Write a sequence for this structure.
C-alpha cells in the first residue's frame, strides 16, 4: 500500500454515512487513497432496501464500488484505481481484507460499528507511520471519539457550496453615497413600457449581477434592478413601488424595501426561478401566495398553484395519518392555511358569502403535493412553491427544479438557520446551493428578507430568545 510515488499522500478511512450522504464522495479525494473497512460495506448492505434517499444513495455507492472493483486489472493488495470514466482522481481504493484490531480502550465495546472503524484507523496508522491516516465521518460523536484517542478525524466538506454562509449572495446591494459622482457622467436615461431605465458607467458595474437589486438611500432615494451588464456598463431599471396601496397584490402591500424587491421578482413573468431567504415572519410565504393568487386567478398566467415542503417534524412525529395525499400533507401546511386566512380577509366589501365563495375558489386552485411523488412529473403553466427548502439536499433540489415545464414558475422559500435534516448544514443545504448557482442568470432572482413583520412580540422574541 505504501507506493513510493504516493508516500506523501494521505489515507482516508470513510465512514458509511459519508457514502450514504454523497455516493460520489469516492471520487473527491484527488491523489489520496481511500480505505473502506469491511463494516462499512456491511452497513451499506443493511441500508440498501427501501425508497428513502439514504437507501437510494447506499445502492448508488454500491454501484460505484462495483464499477471500480470490476474494471480493475490489479491485485487486491495494490488497491483499485479510482480514475475510472475520466474522473481525474489519481488515488486508489483499498478494501479491508484481513482482521484489523487496533488496541481500543477497555470501555469501548468492539461490537459497535463505529468503534470497529476507529480500530481500523488505529491499525492503519501503526502500519503506515509515515502517512497521515484520517477518518472521514458525518457523525460528530465518532469524530470526537477518534480525536480523543489521538487520531485525525474530519467532516466531509466536498458538498459544501460555501465555507461561510455570510458570503451568500443576498440579491441586493447598497450603493455608496458618492455613487452618482463616479457613475453619473454621460448617463443615458429613457422610458419604456412605463419603466425608467438608466445606462451607467463606472467601477462598481463589474461587481453587479443580472437581476440584483441596488438601492441608494441618501438625498433622493433610488431603488432599481440590474437589467444588463457589459464590462463597466450597466443598465438599471427602476422598480415598481408595491408599498403603495394602488399597486397592492391581492390586497397585500410591501412593508419594507426587501419585500418590495421580492414582489418585483414574484410579479415578473420573465423570472422563472426565485429564491427567498429570511427569518420567521419576514413574509416569504404570504408575499409568494399573494402574487401566485393574483397571477393565477386574475391574470390567468398559471393554471394552478402547487405547494410542497419537506416533512421533517420539529418535535415527536405524529404517526401515520389517514386520508388522501392532500389530507396527509394538511398538518404540514399550517403556514399555508394561516396565510390563506390573511389573504381572504383583504376584501372588506365581499361579505361572508362572498368570502366563502372566494375561499372555495382559492382552495380549488391551490394543490398540496408531497415531495415523495415528484419524480417523473412535468408541471406545465404551474406556480410551484417549495416551502422549507433549506431541508432539501442539492440532489433533491435538482430533482424538484427540473420538474418545471414550459410556463412554470418555481419559488423556493426557506431559512437556512432552521435546518432540521440530519447531516445537512447551512453550507451544504440545497437552498444555499441553488442561490449560489442561479445568481446572475437573467431568468432567476434572489432576495434575502431582513426584517420580521409579524408583530412587535414576534420581533422582540426573535431578538432576545
Amino acid at each position: 500500500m505504501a507506493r513510493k510515488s504516493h508516500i506523501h499522500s494521505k489515507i482516508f478511512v470513510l465512514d458509511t454515512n459519508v457514502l450514504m450522504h454523497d455516493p460520489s464522495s469516492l471520487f473527491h479525494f484527488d491523489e489520496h487513497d481511500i480505505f473502506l473497512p469491511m463494516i462499512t460495506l456491511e452497513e451499506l448492505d443493511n441500508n440498501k432496501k427501501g425508497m428513502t434517499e439514504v437507501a437510494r444513495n447506499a445502492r448508488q455507492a454500491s454501484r460505484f464500488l462495483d464499477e471500480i472493483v470490476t474494471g480493475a486489472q490489479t491485485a487486491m493488495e495494490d488497491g483499485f484505481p479510482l480514475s475510472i470514466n475520466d474522473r481525474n482522481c489519481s488515488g486508489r481504493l483499498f478494501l479491508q481484507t484481513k482482521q484489523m484490531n487496533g488496541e481500543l480502550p477497555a470501555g469501548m465495546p468492539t461490537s459497535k460499528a463505529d468503534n470497529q472503524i476507529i480500530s481500523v484507523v488505529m491499525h492503519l496508522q501503526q502500519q503506515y507511520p509515515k502517512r497521515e491516516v484520517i477518518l472521514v465521518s458525518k457523525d460528530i460523536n465518532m469524530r470526537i471519539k477518534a480525536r480523543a484517542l489521538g487520531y485525525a478525524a474530519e467532516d466531509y466538506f466536498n458538498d459544501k457550496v460555501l465555507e461561510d454562509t455570510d458570503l451568500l449572495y443576498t440579491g441586493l446591494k447598497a450603493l455608496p453615497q458618492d455613487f452618482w459622482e463616479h457613475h453619473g457622467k454621460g448617463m443615458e436615461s429613457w422610458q419604456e413600457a412605463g419603466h425608467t431605465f438608466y445606462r451607467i458607467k463606472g467601477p462598481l458595474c463589474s461587481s453587479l449581477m443580472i437581476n440584483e437589486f441596488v438601492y441608494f438611500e441618501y438625498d433622493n432615494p433610488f431603488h432599481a434592478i440590474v437589467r444588463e451588464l457589459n464590462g463597466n456598463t450597466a443598465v438599471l431599471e427602476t422598480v415598481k413601488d408595491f408599498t403603495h396601496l394602488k399597486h397592492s397584490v391581492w390586497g397585500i402591500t410591501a412593508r419594507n424595501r426587501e419585500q418590495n424587491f421580492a414582489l418585483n421578482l414574484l410579479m415578473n413573468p420573465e423570472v422563472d426561478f426565485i429564491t427567498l431567504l429570511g427569518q420567521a415572519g419576514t413574509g416569504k410565504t404570504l408575499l409568494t401566495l399573494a402574487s401566485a393568487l393574483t397571477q393565477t386567478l386574475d391574470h390567468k398566467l398559471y393554471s394552478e398553484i402547487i405547494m410542497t415542503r419537506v416533512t421533517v417534524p420539529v418535535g415527536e412525529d405524529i404517526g401515520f395519518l389517514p386520508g388522501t395525499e392532500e389530507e396527509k400533507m394538511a398538518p404540514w401546511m399550517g403556514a399555508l392555511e394561516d396565510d390563506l386566512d390573511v389573504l381572504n380577509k383583504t376584501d372588506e366589501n365581499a361579505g361572508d358569502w362572498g368570502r366563502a365563495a372566494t375561499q372555495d375558489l382559492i382552495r380549488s386552485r391551490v394543490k398540496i403535493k408531497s415531495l415523495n411523488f415528484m419524480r417523473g412529473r412535468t408541471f406545465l403553466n404551474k406556480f410551484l412553491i417549495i416551502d422549507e427548502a433549506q431541508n432539501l439536499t442539492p440532489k433533491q433540489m435538482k430533482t424538484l427544479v427540473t420538474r418545471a415545464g414550459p410556463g412554470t414558475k418555481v419559488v423556493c422559500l426557506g431559512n437556512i438557520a432552521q435546518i432540521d435534516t440530519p447531516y445537512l448544514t447551512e453550507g451544504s443545504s440545497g437552498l444555499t446551493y441553488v442561490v449560489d448557482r442561479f445568481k446572475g442568470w437573467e431568468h432567476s432572482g434572489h432576495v434575502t428578507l431582513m426584517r420580521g413583520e409579524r408583530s412587535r412580540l414576534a420581533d422582540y422574541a426573535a431578538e432576545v430568545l
